[in-house]
Amino acid sequence: MNVRFARTVVSVAAVVVTASCTHFYEIPIETPIRPKLDVSGFQRVLVAGFISGGTDDVDGNVETTRLLRSQLRTKSDLRVIDADTLPLVDVATRRDPSAAATPAPAIREAKDLVTYEPVFANVAYWKDIGEEYQQPLIVTGTVLFIPQEQSRPVIRNEEEYDNFGRRTTRTVRSYQELKGFKLSLNVIFIDGRTGAVIHSIRPEESNSYPSNQQTPALSAYFELMDRIVPSFLGTLSSQRVKGTRFLLQ
Amino acid sequence: MRLPALVAALVLAMTVSTVASDAREQAKEQLKFGIEVAQHNLWREAISKFERAADIDPTYAPAWNNLAIAYEQQGDLAKANDAYQKALKLDPDNQYIKQNFDLFREIHERTLRQNSR
Fold first, then answer.
1. Tally of domains in chain A
2. Which of A18, A241, A249 minimises the CB distance to B35?
3. Is residue A41 part of a domain?
4. Contact of A45 with A137, CB cutoff 8 Å
């Protein structure tokens, strides 16, 4: 007790001494966070579309394209090109002669995307797209939005009363079933002037809810994208973190 | 024989003390100007004043603290980190410097994590 009291007195004294000897000025600051990718060579950005898979409840291609375009419009200096999303699945399969005659296989998990991924390395195709839209920065990639189930241990206390009305508690361990989604993106940045991939990021997020809770897939998708969008924007545009600091004299 | 040495040591100590005191006063003057311009959002000018203060008196923790804040405002997080470290080394119990550094560190570490992904 004495030691704690002494420590408290010393720390209070330290604050008082610091405060009494130092003049301070609280000042607002905005810390700029530089983007990971130098996009100074581009004036326009084309979010071209995504190869998407997973649940059928959400169109990962359309929703991701729409969301990233709207975020870029408000939070980046690049001019966002409004255009239809590219039918990348068709492009990918059409360019593969062995797959041309058969319908595109469904994308349910990460390994299903492997068939389509070569389209992002097709320099000639992306250069053509770049020329069509006046050589913008092109954003494309893959989106996988997969439902998942899991169970987790839950510990709760149960109250009991004996014959004499005395209350006792006992710890009960059980398992709770959870449902949720996992969202995995592979965002690829392509130079519209050359058609070459210049950068990529692979953000991944997941959420889970009690199985008796009805959460629409689209809500879960937006919840996960809310967590992913900052790292996407941080790649392209500088962010500013507001705060206050103490200047001293 | 001992008396002259004692006198010389005393004179030397007083000289050093006077020089140090002068340096501190000059550094304070620079800091005062720096704070004024920072309050008018002229951060580049503020940096030059705070740098001057730290040059004049490198043992003056507020100079390094203010320099760190100015670097932070300019987005130079590596330099801000170095300056905060120097400020804390000189005055480890200063609650203002500690609080500034804690807030800065949160941003700095988040940036490093994002860049490593």
1. 1
2. A249
3. yes
4. yes
- Number of Cβ atoms within 10 Å of the Cβ of A132: 13
Please name the residue of chain A whose CA is at the shortest distance from the CA of residue B46. A247
Residues 6+ apart with CB under 8 A from A181: A55, A145, A146, A147, A148, A206, A207, A217, A220, A221, A224
**pLDDT value for A152:** 82
Of A22, A32, A202, the CB nearest to B62: A22
Topology of B2-116 in CATH? 1.25.40
CB-nearest partner of B73 from A19, A29, A33: A29
pLDDT tens readout for residues B37-60 = 999 999 999 999 999 999 999 999
Contacts of B109 (CB under 8 A, 6+ apart): none
Q: What is the dihedral of CA B33, B35, B41, B43, to 10 degrees?
A: 80
> Closest Cα of chain A to B11: distance in Å?
29
pLDDT (tens digit, 9 = 90+) per residue, A202-235? 999 999 888 888 889 999 999 999 999 988 998 8
| Min distance A142 CA to chain B CA atoms (Å) | 17
Burial of residue A58 (number of CB atoms within 10 Å: 0-12, 13-18, 19+): buried
CA angle A176, A179, A183 (to 5 degrees): 140
Report the CATH number that the domain containing residue A74 is assigned in CATH. Answer: 3.40.50.10610
For A40, the domain range is 32-150+177-240
Chain A CB contacts of B62 below 8 Å: 22, 247-249
Burial class of residue B23, CB neighbours in 10 A (0-12, 13-18, 19+): middle
Q: Among A89-93, B61-65, B100-104, which stretch is predicted with the lowest mean pLDDT?
A: A89-93
Question: A18 in a domain, yes or no?
Answer: no
Q: Which residues of A touch B111 (CB under 8 A)?
A: 33
Chain A closest CA to B94's CA: distance in Å? 6
